Amino acid sequence: QSVLTQPPSASGTPGQRVTISCSGSRSNTKSNTVNWYQQLPGAAPKLLIYSNYHRPSGVPDRFSGSKSGTSAALTISGLQSEDEADYYCAAWDDSLDGYYAFGTGTKVTVL
Amino acid sequence: QVQLQESGPGLVKPSETLSLTCTVSGASISNFFWSWIRQPPGKGLEWIGYIYYNGSTKYNPSLKSRVTISEDTSKNHFSLKLTSVTAADTAVYYCARGTDYADPFDFWGQGALVTVSS
Lengths: 111, 118
Fold this sequence. Notes:
Chain A is an all-beta fold. Chain A has strands at 9-12, 17-23, 34-39, 46-49, 63-68, 71-77, 85-93, 99-102, 106-110.
């Protein structure tokens, strides 16, 4: 079971702002940087945000990330229909000799 | 452009060993960290483990006793072996690249569905 907890679902109408939370602990989100992945239906995950708030080249600036303490968040400002996807937070966890932990995932629906 | 491609049997019998290979093009595996990640149907992502170009490995504690990741630098590919599989190991298996052990995965394969069934 994942040590990073996300809400199972989130939704909004086109143009709205949607925020997804990611709750972890001292051994993962507090100690290490958080990354976010977007997984479109039937596709492999794609890196969306790295090192808490950095966007890889080509990722629209409507996607932003933040981190405070043991929690992180992904915000989609100006939701678009093509943003309907699953979103996963992830971070290295220093416990148990170390491993890479993914969040439980959030399904974003564009109404 | 870096590309990764998983290959291997799509059907494995219970108690047998799952074997997959990830062939990398556009980059040398003699650098970076190369991981396996899986996703059961309709469920979330689970990191299986990585291999570094020098051969060092690290595995998810939950799978450590059954997993081996190896590399073949001459063929620029790395492989996954998962022993004693059960239906719970049915999943899409992805290979991916990271620039450091805790770094994000910037390139992914398309994924390979492996079903465990008799």
